Amino acid sequence: MSKEKFEKIAQMLFAFASEISSKAYQNSQLIKSILERKQAEEKLIQEQYLSNALLNNLPDHIYFKDRESHFIRINKDHAQSFGLSDPSQAVGKTDFDFFTEEHARQAYEDEQTVIQTGQPLSREEKLTWPDRLDTWSSTTKLPMRDKEGNIIGTFGISKDITKHKLAEEALRESEEHYRILFNEAL
Predict the structure, then answer these.
(1) pLDDT in tens, 70-97
(2) The model scores a pTM over 0.90
(3) Which one of 7, 26, 70, 146 is separated from 97 by 20 to 30 angstroms, measured CA to CA?
(4) CA distance readout (Å), 77 to 69, 108, 140, 157
(5) Cα–Cα distance measured from residue 5 to residue 10, given in angstroms and rounded to the nearest whole number
(6) How close are the terminal C-alpha atoms of the chain, in Å?
(7) Average pLDDT, integer, range 98-117
(8) Per-residue pLDDT for 142 more than 80?
């Protein structure tokens, strides 16, 4: 074989080896990227699992709303309080769809205050229902922010304190009753 032919074959082999080496490096980088993405997806799935476990097992009402106070997401307990079989049935609705004007208006105004000020709000609320007796809750509402820090809605948690409020009222009535009896005895 001539020297010239040998050099051409050697150059071709070198070019093939370089190409194979480059492809192997690209493949290793691609595999690394795929593994990192898979790990990130597994972490996201775990985070979603934990969030859903918390959201759907707390005995309190948890909700997320957009800037116009439309429900984005609620937990199972909150859906049940609305008489819904699935939390997704509340998406796009507002408190005006579930409560009387009295409570819905106050809730809307509170949420708009949270959105405007960026400050959380905590209070005891009287919930007035169109089809049942009033109930009470202890509620905390907070601003919901996007990754840039802009307020995009609200979220909150409410605990039913109706039994506590009824017990307080019964105690007040009992005290008043005994005060009247005591004053009559004098």
Answers:
(1) 999 999 999 999 999 999 999 999 999 9
(2) no
(3) 146
(4) 19, 21, 16, 11
(5) 9
(6) 133
(7) 97
(8) yes
Min mean pLDDT across 59-63, 93-97, 110-114, 173-177 is at 173-177
Residue type at 7 in one-letter notation: E
Kind and range of the H or E run holding 48: helix 3-57
What is the Cβ-side half-sphere exposure of residue 155, based on CA atoms within 13 angstroms?
A: 13
Q: CA geometry: angle at 140 spanning 136 and 141, to 5°?
A: 120
Only one residue has tokens 């005060």, namely 179
Length of the chain (residues): 186
Could you give the 3-state DSSP secondary structure of residue 118? Answer: coil
Query: How far is residue 152's CA from residue 172's CA, in Å, rounded to a whole number?
Result: 42
Query: CA 50, CA 79: separation in Å to the nearest integer?
Result: 20
